[in-house]
Amino acid sequence: MRRLRPLLFFACLLFAAPAAMAQGPQQLDLPGGRLGDAVVALGRQAGVSIGITDPALAARRVAPVRGRYSVGQALALLLRDSDGRYLQYDRTTFRIVRRPMPQPRWAQRAPMPAVGSHPVQQDFAEPLVGEGEDLIVTGARLPVRLASYPGSAEIVRGDDLALQSGLHGSDALVARLPEVGSTHLGPGRNKLFIRGLADSSFNGPTQATVGQYLGETRVNYNAPDPDLRLYDIDRIEVLQGPQGTLYGAGSLGGIIRVLPNSPRVEGFEGSASVGASATLRGEPGADAAGTLNLPIAADRLALRVTGYAVTEGGYIDDTLRLRDDVNRVTAVGGRLGLRLVSPDAWTVDVSATGQQISGDDGQFADRDAPPLTRRSAIEQPFRSDYLLADLVVAKDWGDTRFVTALGYVNQRLFERYDATRLGMDPQLFEQDTRVTLLSAESRLSGGAAPGLAWLVGASLISNDAEQHRFAGPVDAPEAMPGVANRILEAAGFGQVSVTPLSDVTLTAGGRLTHSSLSGESLGLALSVLQPLFGPQASRNETAFLPSLSVAWTPRRDLLLFARYEESFRPGGLSVAGDFIRRFRNDTVSAFEGGLRYGARSAPVSAALSLAYTNWNDIQADTIGLDGFPTTANIGNGHIVTLDFRVGWRPLPGLNLEVAAVANDSEVTNPNPNIDITADAALPNVADLSARIAADYRTAIGVGTELVLTSHARYVGHSRLGIGPILGVEQGGWLDIGLGARVERGDQAFTLTVTNLLDQAGNRFAFGSPFTLVDNPQVTPMRPLTVRLGWQTAF
Q1: What CA dihedral angle connects 201, 206, 208 and 209, to 10 degrees?
Q2: What is the pLDDT of residues 369-412, one digit of tens each?
Q3: Which is nearest to 62 in space by CA: 341, 272, 263, 266?
Q4: Are 418 and 428 in contact (CB under 8 A)?
Q5: What is the DSSP letter of 733?
Q6: Using an 8 Å Cβ cutoff, are 211 and 255 in contact?
């Protein structure tokens, strides 16, 4: 019966849309002023439902519309001087969205036949379809339609229903896309993985396997995911597989690129949201956010400010210290952006993003204790402080575009662990990680002839990371050996795409990278270090990262592609007890083939890919029998990945989607110094991750829409890490969620339910590496949680 429950929840969404009569021309009298007000008037006069959730579009100024028009004609007239378009879901349900980014002339294919027969309607509407027809992959650096991109990619829009459920951090992305995985140490100290390229569960000096970007600026280098909350976001792009040619080191598994909404010089706008949540057997939670867009000089200068505060109530009890709901987490942050548009069309963006995450205690429970409980001798708080400042200058000359970006990141992560072993007085271990990242990149792209696109660029990265460590009695911990790693990376890169045949595109590129690495001990006696490498170690590395892809479009709605690409991570130094050890750089090469059928807005769409990845000299952060973390090259390995997605629109307004990723990974020739058997699977690589989702949109009154959502997400089995201590199983859990959203004018009310079956599960098998030996641990799912939310735009 339990296996049938998910099917029952999905079946409840499969009901027919209410019948409605066709909307022909009728006499309309729509006022001028705000587009949002004119749309409300149109909905009332025509008896239809028209949704508009983009506050910038709703604030656009429009001229009056008076006369005899159909709804489509009236909308086209209202939108003719804006960057909006309308989508028609059924005879009485419409939605206004922003038109996709226009492609440069060199990236455009032959024009497609227009949909519909009325000349006004053709430019602004896609009748009887949903969103996503012309999504553009800007992360490819040569903008290309998603339907034509020769690789595996996903685009999540900022108004995606998955981002409206109250999960506004990286968890929202992990819940939405099966190919994205994460550890669950706690917000601000997790690692993200794409396509099964997972190195370890711990936060050591190794560089991340996923490159994360906020707009044009790199978010981190060898630090955990800062878990920036996804408020006021335009879209998120995820490119799967190595991306070394365009993004350099640290893109082994792929790229996650978050594009926030930019300041808009056209007019004032704003939005606000609040929410409250209740967790079964846990504390309540709350969230609030607001955005203001303030034009300072008409069509020239604008300021955009976003702020938010989130509290996630605790739900784990510590029975030894007699405390309930110890694992509460709070996050406070915001973003400030200033845009200047010069008279000759240069665009200058200056922005700053800051966030602080505070966790009262660890997110784990004891495996052999009653659910959601543990026994800890001390509290284990953590804190993540993050600051990013960047400057982006861009200019578009039609067929040629120039972009230069400068970024500064200061990231600090403090963690405390319970290091009390059986029979000991309370002991602690503290780790204080401080990272400073400077990045600069300039690139020029264009296409002087049809069927030709090119890009050249250069980048420079400087990253300094220090880890300070303390251990001992709670009231008198002592400093332990720490380590500092410094990397200076300079690179030049280029890529060219040609179309030798009308339906075939070839793309080739390369990146030449030179890295200077140095490291030194922090607080380690020189006599201990000297027999190894001296108090410091340094070296230089040069790497060339090629890429090659071919895309074939045998018919308008079908793309076949093949791709080869490489990436790498530089090495460094790590602490192992009282010694400093080197670890080598690791490299990845991947072959991928696949197909993409139909646009996301089509009645049926599908994507399928098969990838084989070689991973040499794998860097992994591990722990020893004493619980202390260290880093080592564990050997070579490979991963076979199969992923697919199928979308179906059986009824107007109803969307169904199934997506899954299967991974088969193994360490083929382990390092003899590492306690691991050949053919063992890589850590944190789930054998299967899958998601089934359904959403239905319908009108329930004039100007009012109802959206119902449902999803089931399964994460398969994996193991925590490398070696006998970490070879414990995790995963194998199912999460089911439901949601309802009522949209009326500029307001929306939401109700979401997560973990509907109230499963404990085991998202992760680790809380403290020091007590893991004596006491197996799990990281349970948040119990059944209900959230009520309200949003408005003005």
Answers
A1: -80
A2: 999 999 999 999 999 999 999 999 999 887 789 999 999 999 99
A3: 266
A4: yes
A5: E
A6: yes
Q: What are the angstrom distances between the C-alpha of 522 and each of 91, 205, 289? A: 69, 14, 41
* Residue 312 · residue 287 · CB < 8 Å: no
Cα distance between residue 661 and residue 607, in whole Å: 12
- Give 578's Cβ-side CA count (13 Å radius): 7
Distances (CA, A) of 123 to 80, 671, 699: 9, 61, 25
Q: Which CATH superfamily is domain 254-793 in?
A: TonB-dependent receptor, beta-barrel domain (2.40.170.20)
Average pLDDT of the residues of the chain: 84
Helix (H) / strand (E) containing 362: none
Enumerate the domain spans of the chain.
Answer: 2-128, 254-793
Backbone φ and ψ for 353, nearest 5 degrees, come out as: -130, 130
782 contacts 735 by C-beta, under 8 angstroms: no
In this structure, what token pair is assigned to residue 504? 């075939």
Under a CB-based contact definition with an 8 Å cutoff, are residues 769 and 756 in contact? no
> CB neighbours (10 Å) of residue 105?
12
Strand partners, 65: 30
Q: Are the CB atoms for 110 and 463 separated by under 8 Å?
A: no
Nearest partner of 469 among 678, 203, 128, judged by Cα: 203
Highest mean pLDDT: which range of 221-225, 495-499, 569-573? 495-499
**How, if at all, do strands 65-69 and 49-52 pair?**
unpaired
Sheet of strand 210-214: strand arrangement: 153-157, 233-240, 254-260, 210-214, 217-218
Give the Cα-Cα-Cα angle 617, 618, 622 (nearest 5 degrees). 130
Q: Phi, psi (5° rounding) for residue 162?
A: -65, -25
The DSSP bridge partners found for residue 576 are 579
254-793 and 2-128 share a CATH fold: no
So what CATH class is 2-128?
Answer: alpha beta
Give whole-number Cα distances, 750 to 13, 48, 114, 164, in Å: 17, 22, 36, 8
Q: What does the DSSP 8-state code read for residue 627?
A: -
Nearest C-alpha neighbor of 205 from the set 627, 583, 462: 583
pLDDT at 526 over 50: no
Measure the CA–CA gap between 77 and 124, rounded to whole angstroms.
Answer: 9
CA pair distance 400, 415, nearest whole angstrom: 47
How far is the C-alpha of 249 from the C-alpha of 544, rounded, in Å?
Answer: 11
Distance CA 512, CA 542 (A): 7
CA distances from 792 to 99, 426, 444, 750 (A): 22, 50, 40, 12
